[in-house]
Amino acid sequence: MHSNKFKKSYLACCLAISASQVGLVHAASSEESSGAEDNVEVITVKGVRGSIVRSLNNKYNDSNVSDSISSEDLGKFPDMNLSESLQRIPGVTINRNQNGEGSQINVRGLGPQFTRVEINGMTAPGGGSAGRLGTNGGGRGFSFELLPSELFSNATVTKSSDASQSEGGLAGLVTLETPQPFQHRGLKFSSSLQGNYSDTTDSIDPRAFVTVSNNIDDTFGFSIGLFHSNSEFRSDGAENGVWRPLSVIDPDVDPNSPMGSALVANGTRLYTFLEDRENTAGTLALQYSPSDELAFTFNSIYAELTNEKAAHRNDIPLEHLGVKALQDSLVIENGVIVEGSFDNVQHRVGPRITDIDDTFFQTSLTATWKPNDYWEITPYIGASSREANRKQSLLSFKLNNEIGGNVPGILSYKVRGDYVDFNSTLTDFSSNPEDFSLNVLIFRPSEDDAKEVTSKIDFTRFFDHEFMNKVDFGFRYTVQDKEVVEQDYRIGRESGWNPNMGPSLADSMIMLDYDVDGADPSFTHKMFSVDPNGFQDVWFQGGNVSPTGSSLVPGTSVQNRASSAALNSYQVEEKTLNAYVKADFDWEELTANVGVRYVKTTQNIDGYTTALGGIDAIAFESDYSEVLPSASLRYELSEGVLLRAAYSKTLTRPNLPDLAPSERIFAPDVNSATGQRGNPELKPFTSDNLDLSIEWYFSDEALLAANVFRKDLDGLIDTTTFTANRDFVTQLSPEVFNGDVFFTQPSNGASASIKGFELSYQQPFSFAPEGILQNFGFLANYTKTSSDADFGIENDVRSAGLPGLSPTSFNASLYYDDGTLDAKLSYAWRERYLAQTSDDFGEPRFMDDYGQLDFSANYSVNDNLQVQFQVLNLTDENMVAKTFVHKTGYLPYGVTDLSRRVLLGVRYSF
Asked: Of 634, 583, 292, 376, which is closest to residue 465 (Cα–Cα)?
């Protein structure tokens, strides 16, 4: 009979030798003696070099095309943020949030929703506190800010799929594993205490972690981890928004003239983004093995992220009726107004604020039973929930146009590289708060609940056969439920409103620091905004924001827009039933597997839609099924040289808000009403995938690899448009208007192909002369990706590159590890990519090329105590956004000034 024990390979022997050379222990797994798991070789190593060794071993032995990142020791992952570690893998790039942190990942040019993330075998739910203001609650892409890296022992990105893997990851599968007690011998303890300093907040934020693990005679074990941190973030930005034809801004200009068609910066603005975050998390793992044939594993993970996010924005937009271009001031170059002045402009001050309590809980129980040498049965049941309670608000004041004896204000701007410098004749946004009166105060509390229950059972039948090794088959049933309930109320102006009599910005003002590296040096380094707490005492009876309360200010009232809020509320129940079979073959140097997975999905969707005179509830039910075949080959051409080939069909389901059968209308005024309608008939995206790779493990801890891939996608989301007559209210008035609304709606239909290659190289400097150089090592990878898409729209930007796809990306790390001191200098770079297909007024927004240099070091005082040091964004880089217009190319959109963050701490373990 073919045993399922680990075959000692050339690499395993090399790794054992390598471990001994750096003073590390090479030990057999405790799982071998328990009989509860497959017999495997575990190299118990620590530090940077130990993490690299384990990751290399995982890659070599995986039957799929994959890469992994392993912890350097119990409770010590290479980076504070998991996505920051995953970006070191070829083909993986990250989307950074407004603070510059890694937030979500892209795999081979496909965005976060196309990558399935699992934690201990269950779906890691998306949404929660994701997004710039924590309002992106409906996406399937996982946000990595929620869970600290200290909780995990391993993260693997699988780029080729096999039938035994759960569907949902069209681009790939990320599996996150928490520490298990049977992975270690005896009692283990680890703790760390760190201070995190930011040069923009000038604060030191605490970060603490403790974990205890105990394996008692390979029969019972437990592992507990607890984490807590407080963090403050600040980033400043200068933006000009999208570019629009001058004739759209000033209707007195002939649209057919060169001046009328010239593009003007539409939304000059300053902003300061502040975030106050508290994160508490913990894990619990229990393992019990009463015999060599039976083992139980219980896992639980909890995380709570409390966030207060505020985007303080002061702007002078050219978007309301009455704006006049001072034509003699305009400087036009290549169809773009690079310098000019504009009269009768609007001036606004106010933050968008979101307070979020994001709670995640997951628990699972699994067993492994081997009744004899031929069968292994693994039942699994798990449940998870993620609840995000949000309090969103917009506190907007505008400049009173009667200031200065009816002298209209003038905006002047000038393009300077990535910046658009601007100023106004009426304000510098720091010295005259008494001149700003109420524009609108909007409040949108919401509850976002996501739940999942998963049950599955897997069977393995081993064969005593010349070439067939085993057959896996199993079944999985999952129920997911997503419910979003929103409220909408605001303080609005009534007929008795007098802006000169009511409270001004000065009555509820705060002054903020402001500094954007490279911006106009003549501009103020202070900006005023609305106090998120102080305004309540000025505007609300009793100082409490409430939809049933009353306003303190004559001429204003609290307007409860329950019908409008209903349009943003929905519930989706998604049930999936899976069955699969996979056969594994083994002919000496060749191993292979072939399989198929059947997936049936049923969706029940409830929402609301507008009708003349009111709001109607609507329900929708749909179902579909897919057959997902897969096959992979792994051939050892010679000692240490592997050839891999794989084919699979994968799918990803649409984001849940796109399925909601709701109509949402946005109307700044009666003449500019736009709407969004969901589409419950959306089908999943599917992809046929091919991989071919060669890997050469040419020396101890060394690898040279090349991989080519292709994905042919079908059913990508496109956007259809239509106009319909509706009743609606505007942002500023409770009065009901009737008119045409321009709607957009998602639909299936577009196809695309993605192709590219990945190159990887890593090697310790063991070839160097004996001495300190042998403690160094180097890792690097390079990815080239391109896409062809057919959206059926001329000049569609997505046809040149799908959202999230960087044509080129690379990573490089230089490390040092002598057993006492380890250090790593890492650089990650990605090329410009499409961040949003439709931003302000439907224009696309791109994020420019971005590279970041990080440094980390650890010094072992003795066997138990270690000093830690880390610097993120060592060179203090900025994020630059661009917009794209076909006749002119890329134009400035905005610059975000990020902070450099320094971490210093100690770690104690035994």
From this structure: 583
